[in-house]
Amino acid sequence: MRRLLIVLAMFCMPITAGAVDGDNILQQVDRNLAPDSYEMYRKIINSQPDGTRKEFVLYTAKKGRENMVALFLSPASDEGRTTLRKGDNMWLYIPEVGKPLRITSMQSVVGGIFNNSDLMRIEYSTEYNVESAIESGDEILLKLSAKPNTAVAYDKLEMQVDKKTLLPTTINAYASSGMLIKTLSYSRVKDFGNGILRPSLLETTSPLYVGYKASIIFAEIKHKDFLDEVFSLNYMPRVKELR
After folding, report:
1. Considering the domain boundaries, does residue 8 fall inside one?
2. Contact partners, residue 116, CB within 8 Å, separation at least 6
3. What is the pTM of this model?
4. φ/ψ of residue 90, rounded to 5
5. Which of helix, strand or coil describes residue 242?
6. CB 235, CB 242: distance < 8 Å
7. Whole-angstrom Cα distance, residue 29 to residue 133?
8. How many domains does the chain divide into?
9. What are the pLDDT digits (tens) for 171-230?
10. Is 199 helix (H, G, I), strand (E, B) or coil?
């Protein structure tokens, strides 16, 4: 009888603040940010300490958890350039060069604080494992570590997730030494239609770039299916045909 009472008491115990399924939450964050396959238009703005700005407009297509391609629409000096990501591998196609060039996640095709990993992110759950998930007030703190043998720009992430919407609000990105590299802030939740309700603004600052700031404004995101050939080196000169 005593054993039965103990078992019943265990089932009746309240769920503690930390007893949340971090893996499931991170996967839902990915799905809430964008469909599994989509096309997107966005503007990237790099701001310098002296107030000068440089802007880029990109068309982006993504399929599944491995493939993404982006086409530069402006400025005129970058128009026609294309970036491709397949898993951990990334390339940049420059029309004047005529062939894809390998690039890394830590480099940046737009300069400024955003690196290629930020611009060509597939899904957080593809690159990171959840170390812990702690519920506190209206948010859930996910502590993430890079998956083994994954070429990522940050070794660890601390992601604050809104408990109601399951959308990220703030992400602190760290090096393996524990040094803070960057803070990314999501805001201005917008209804993009067809069930896509997500932040339309992503801003970032870095203690390594004092006075600099960068932001991404998401103008359009919608579900769209693509053929596998779209995400290949041979197709990079033809990405403009997708629009």
Report:
1. no
2. 83, 90, 103, 104, 105, 106, 107, 108, 109, 153
3. 0.89
4. -135, 145
5. helix
6. no
7. 13
8. 1
9. 999 999 999 999 999 999 999 999 999 999 999 999 999 999 999 999 999 999 999 999
10. strand
Let me know if 201 is exposed, middle or buried by CB neighbors in 10 A (0-12, 13-18, 19+): middle
Torsions phi, psi for 12 (to 5 deg): -90, -5
End-to-end CA distance of the chain: 70
Q: How far apart are CA 56 and CA 6, in angstroms?
A: 62
Res 91 pLDDT > 50 = yes
CATH of the domain at 231: 2.50.20.10
Asked if 215 and 204 count as a contact pair (C-beta separation under 8 A), the reply is yes
Report the phi/psi class of residue 188: left, alpha or beta, with left for phi > 0 and alpha for psi in -120 to 50: left
Q: For residue 197, give the nearest of 206, 186, 207 by alpha carbon.
A: 186
The predicted structure's pLDDT at residue 211: 94
Say yes or no to pLDDT of 4 above 60: no
pLDDT band at 99 (very low <50, low <70, confident <90, very high): very high
- 43 in any annotated domain: yes
Residues 37-86: tens digit of each pLDDT: 999 999 999 999 999 999 999 999 999 999 999 999 999 999 999 999 99
Single out the residue of 104, 157, 105 nearest to residue 133, CA to CA.
157
Residues 6+ apart with CB under 8 A from 2: none
Confidence at residue 19, expressed as pLDDT on a 0 to 100 scale: 60
Q: What is the DSSP string of 14-52?
A: PPPTT---HHHHHHHHHHHHS-SEEEEEEEEEEE-TTS-
Which domain, by its residues, includes 231? Answer: 17-242
Parallel/antiparallel/unpaired status of strands 139-146 and 82-86: unpaired
